[in-house]
Design brief:
About 55% of the residues lie in helices and about 15% in strands. By secondary structure, it is of the alpha+beta class. Strand 3 and strand 4 form a beta hairpin. The protein is elongated.
């Protein structure tokens, strides 16, 4: 009785969300290779580049020269693998800047095809409403995956028959759906859980991290290790970057926020050795005029739960620096699309009898 109810809930819930899951898995799989596509269509992204502080400081200065500081929200610096700097601007405007500081493209919201694809995947082209829908759908799918595991257990002896249907008969499609679902359970749950966190980042931070961030130890971590350098010119881009690398040895500069009417600081973010998040999670705050390093935020000193939390973005997007992991996520994405398709077609066939 209970097992039949679980099967019914899984079937109806699955068919309700099947098309959304197919869309999400397909667009997500394509987005794993987003940077590769941009390199393919943008000559300025196919050059050799060494992202040392001098080169990045020159780019930062060029960004400030090309745009108003109050309009610049974030500067995501070029890397050796992707030698384009992405500038996030006010009112959902963006720009790519090459290694010489020249603006090679500027666009609004999802005017570029890969940005449109991201908007479709993340927000269904519906702004915040779409983001809420995808987040709630991911939460519902977590429950459906767990229900699917329960329905598989009594039928586990059929697992040896594989994940590819021998025919288009409903029984074969349903069998393949169950078997493929078990194979994909862990990567699918990982993608869904991290997807929920990315859809509701502020709520997730408040639920999981707020209590830890209120501790005195957490606050003290922000002033440990700051240098005592100050004075004229010490807050300029190049010395600020060199000082940041000095207090975070062997780190890689990933992004920065520029001084503006809202902040007097150059905020420089770095990726430390062992940090999976290639956007970086450690940073310094350096006063532009006086040169004081007011904060040094070391992500290695974060509570364990926050360090795990910070792995959500790279695990979801494939941006870990591992080509193997990108291929793994690609195969999983294709598998999830097939999983949903098998389940949807078998359900429809059952209703057309």
């Amino acid at each position: 009785m209970i097992l039949n109810l679980i099967r019914t809930l899984h079937a109806w819930g699955g068919v309700t969300l099947a098309l959304l899951l197919i869309l999400s898995s397909t667009t997500g799989t394509l987005l794993i290779w987003k940077d590769d596509y941009v390199k393919l269509v943008t000559p300025a992204a196919r050059v050799d580049f060494t992202p040392d502080p001098a080169a990045l400081a020159s780019i930062a200065e060029a960004v400030e020269a090309n745009f108003e500081n109050n309009d610049i929200l974030n500067v995501q610096f070029a890397t050796a693998e992707f030698p384009l700097t992405k500038v996030t601007l006010y009112d959902t405007n963006y720009a790519y800047v090459d290694i010489n500081g020249e603006v090679v493209d500027q666009w609004h919201m999802n005017d570029r095809i890969e940005e449109w694809l991201y908007d479709l995947h993340h927000r269904l082209l519906l702004d915040d409403l779409g983001l809420t829908i995808t987040g709630l759908a991911a939460m519902a799918l977590i429950i459906l995956v767990l229900l699917g595991v329960i329905t598989f257990i009594p039928l586990r002896r059929y697992f040896s028959r594989g994940c590819i249907p021998a025919s288009t008969r409903r029984a074969e499609l349903l069998l393949s759906h169950r078997n493929l679902g078990i194979v994909l359970t862990l990567p699918l749950l990982l993608t869904l859980v991290t997807g929920v966190i990315l859809a509701f980042p502020f709520q997730a931070e408040e639920l999981l991290l707020e209590e830890h961030r209120r501790s005195e130890e957490y606050s003290d971590n922000m002033v440990i290790g700051i240098d005592e350098i100050a004075g004229e010119g010490t807050g300029d881009w190049l010395p600020a970057m060199e000082r940041t690398v000095a207090v975070f040895p062997d780190s890689i500069i990933r992004s920065a926020s520029v001084p503006s009417g809202f902040s007097i600081h150059r905020v420089i973010t770095v990726q430390q050795v062992g940090d999976w998040n290639r956007n970086g999670t450690s940073m310094t705050y350096i006063d532009e005029e006086q040169g004081y390093m007011d904060l040094r935020i070391d992500s290695k000193g974060f509570p364990r739960i926050e360090r795990v939390f910070n792995t959500g973005y790279p695990l979801h997007t494939g941006k870990t620096g591992s080509l193997f992991y990108k291929f793994f996520l690609t195969l999983c994405g294709i598998g999830v699309a097939l999983l949903s398709s098998f389940g949807l077609v078998s359900f429809v066939k059952s209703k057309l009898k």
